Amino acid sequence: MVDHSKVLLAKDLVGIMERLAPAGLAEEWDNSGWQVGDPDAKLQKVLLALDVTWEVVEEAVKNGAQLIISHHPMLLKGIKSVRRDNPAGSLVFRLIQSGIGVYAAHTTLDCAEGGVNDVLARILGLEQIEVLQPLHYQQLLKLVVFVPVSHAGAVREALGRSGAGYIGNYSHCTYNLRGIGTFYPLEGTNPFIGTTGRLEQVEEVRIETIIKKEESGRVLQAMFEAHPYEEVAYDLYPLVNKGAVYGLGRVGRLPQAVTLVKLAGIVQKVLHGSCLRYGGTSHTMVQRVAVCGGSGGDLWTMAQKKGADVLVTGDVRYHTARDMLAAKMGFIDAGHFATERVVLPALRKRLNAALAQAVYVVDIEIAIREKEPWVGIL
C-alpha cells in the first residue's frame, strides 16, 4: 500500500534527478543545477519544460507546481541584478513570490545515459547506438567486504539491489573467497560473534564487486544495513577500468537504408517539428545516422569520422552547412526545440518510476504552453 504521508522535498527530487543526469557531467561553461528556490520546499506538483519562460512560469503557477525542472538554465549567462523592471529580474521575482523553484539539467541531460541524445536516437529508430563525442567516463571502484558465512548471501543481495556488481548487461556480479578473519573485541564493544577480551577466529567470506563512484554512498549504506558486524571491515579501491562513456550526440544505424529526403520526412513526422530544413542530394541512400539534440552542427566532422552519412540536429549555421555539403555530408536541421523536447516524456517516465520505487506520490506534468519559437515559414 502506498504511504501517502511520505513527504517529498525538492532536494529529494533533485537527488533522484542527479542520479539520472549526474552533476559531474556538466560542461565547464554550463550552469546546470539550482537556479532559484528552496531545496527544503515540500513538493506536490512538478512541471517539466525545456525553457523557463513567462508562459511556463504562469502555467506552473496555475497548476500549483512548486518546482520547474528545465533543460536550459534560466541563468546561463548570469545576471548582475534582480530588478522588476527588466525581463530576467521580473521572472525571478515572479518565481520567488509564487514559491516556485527552478532546477536545470542542461549538458548533464545531454550527456547522460537515457538523456536527450539517447532518446532522440531511439525515437528515430537507430540501432547499435554509441556516443558520438565522448567527454566523460564513469569512474568505477572495487568494493571488498568481509562477512561471516552466515550472512554472506544477505549482504550479496543487498549489494546487488543497491546497484553494485554491474558488468555490461550483467548484474549482481561478485567474486567470493572463504578465509579466516581474526579480531579482538576490546572493552566497551558488543561483538556479533565472540566475547569481549578474547581473540576470535571466524570463518568469513571475502566479497568483491564493482560499484559506480557516484552510487557508492547508497551501496555502502545498503551494505552496512545488511551486515551483522558492529564494525564492518571493507575496502574501496579506485579502478583504471573505464565505465560507461558519456558525451554529446549519438551515432547508430537505421534498420535499412533510406533516401535522405525520406529520412527528412521521417524526422519531421516523429519530432512534429515546424521548421525542418535539410541539405545534401535528396535521393542519396543513408543508413548510418548521427544525431545531436539542440545545436550540434559543429559535431559534423566527428560524425563523418564515425562513418555517418547524415547528421540530424538543430541550429545549423550557414557556413557549417556549406562545409558539410563540400564534404558530401548530408544534414537534417529539425530545429533546436524539436530535437530536445522529445526527452521530456521519457524523463517524466523515469522520474515517476524512481518516485514510485521510493514510495513518493508527486504529480509530474509536462508544460503544454511551451511552443517552438518560430511561428512558421512563409
SSE inventory with pairings:
Blueprint: E1 8-9, H1 10-20, E2 33-36, E3 42-43, E4 45-49, H2 54-63, E5 67-70, H3 87-97, E6 101-104, H4 107-111, H5 116-123, E7 127-148, H6 152-161, E8 175-183, E9 200-212, H7 216-226, E10 234-259, H8 260-271, E11 277-279, E12 285-295, H9 300-305, E13 310-314, H10 318-326, E14 330-333, H11 336-341, H12 343-357, E15 363-366
Parallel strand pairs: 4-5, 4-15, 5-6, 12-13, 13-14
Antiparallel strand pairs: 1-3, 2-6, 7-9, 7-10, 8-9, 10-12, 11-14
Give a brief outline of the structure.
By secondary structure, this protein is of the alpha/beta class. The protein is built from twelve helices and 15 strands. It has three domains: 8-108 and 343-366, 3-Layer(aba) Sandwich (Udp-n-acetylmuramoylalanyl-d-glutamate--2,6- Diaminopimelate Ligase, Chain: A, domain 1); 111-134 and 247-341, Udp-n-acetylmuramoylalanyl-d-glutamate--2,6- Diaminopimelate Ligase, Chain: A, domain 1 (3-Layer(aba) Sandwich), CATH 3.40.1390; 136-244, Alpha-Beta Plaits (2-Layer Sandwich), CATH 3.30.70.120.
